[in-house]
Amino acid sequence: MSPVRVGILGAGAAGAAAAKTLQAVSPEVQADVFARTGEQPFNRTLVNKGVAIGLLSPEQTALPETGAALVSDTVRGIDPRARQVHIASGESRTYDGIIIATGSRPHTLGEDVLGRNDALATGKLTTLHSLTDATGIRDQLAALPGSARVLILGAGVLAAETSSLLSAAGHDVALISRSTLPGTSVFGEHIAKKLLDLHQARGATYLGRTIQAVRTHPDHISIVLDGGDRVEGDLAIIAHGTLPAAPSPWNGPEGIPVDDRLRLRQAPDQRIYAAGGVAIHEHPDLGAYRIDHWDDAAAQGAHAANTLLYDHGLGDDPGAYRPVSTFTSSIHGHILAGAGHPTPGSTARLISDDPTVVLHEHAGAPVAATGLDTVALIHQWAPRLHHQHTQN
């Protein structure tokens, strides 16, 4: 029997997990893992937690080898019908199955924000998604004679965690958010309010504000808000979430729609799969959604690999993918924990006020749980998600 040849596009959480899952059935599977040209696979969770604040070097974020062949050659596109992968060096490779795990790219400010491009070019305005972003922030902070004033544009998990890390390092941080209560849709109103209280106790917050312009000066940066107010800082970090980073022919902002086994939705028999931040899931009742955090991406990568093995007669049907992965984030001395994903249309219900636990439900079934300083309780909820009539 000839080995099954698999191309895994992307070497982050989803790609590495897919490779490890496939390697477990070797020698029936031969996998190539594609990374960007010149880039070693790295743990993206350490970009803000370690490198940007100077605790880790980029080399210390490297992921361990998966056992699959690593190809450091950027994927330019795919011919889905032929299952052919075109890479930057000019070569094309054909596979029996392809797992697309190319992850995400950061949202930046809109093109209508005056001065955006000039500010990005100076590095005083930056995203925080890659090792290059992180080392740029680290170097700018290190070059200042004392503590910095850092403006965080956004107030989601990345913004909250980065704000906390910078504050703990002695920097003055201000949050600027379009929402009046950031995080409500993800954490529920009760937790969002507590997180906001933590931020406001440690720095300035500008809520319900939109950014009109960015002014770059030799020694600082100004963010011009609606109404003409200016917020001054040494550095501004954009934390407005992410967009899918799919190869051609899916390289628009929409991502790759998948079915409940993570097969390509438009052509489930094509033996093309997507996992992680590039995949668009669709719940029959809740509609389309996307998840972009490390542990869930790894779970999706393993699930896609198991579906591929099943489709090739090398394993059992893994069943429908449902997000149950957990995450934790340290924010101003408190631990934000979550399990699952609060899909669109779910409702948040406070089930405990001390400690704070919020359950996100749809049609009588819990789909996610979030809590503050309740890691053990949230982990207990994870295996109970997506089951009807769960008792508190």
From TrEMBL:
Pfam families cross-referenced by the UniProt entry: Pyr_redox_2
Keywords: FAD, Flavoprotein, Oxidoreductase
Any one Gene Ontology cellular component term annotated for this protein: cytoplasm
Keyword Secreted found: no
GO MF terms held by the record: oxidoreductase activity, acting on NAD(P)H
Keyword Flavoprotein attributed: yes
Residues in FAD/NAD(P)-binding domain copies: 5-301
Domain of life: Bacteria
Cofactor(s) recorded in Swiss-Prot or TrEMBL: FAD
PANTHER family with a match to the protein in the record: APOPTOSIS-INDUCING FACTOR 1, RIESKE DOMAIN-CONTAINING PROTEIN-RELATED
Record protein name field: Pyridine nucleotide-disulfide oxidoreductase
Organism for this UniProt entry: Nesterenkonia sphaerica
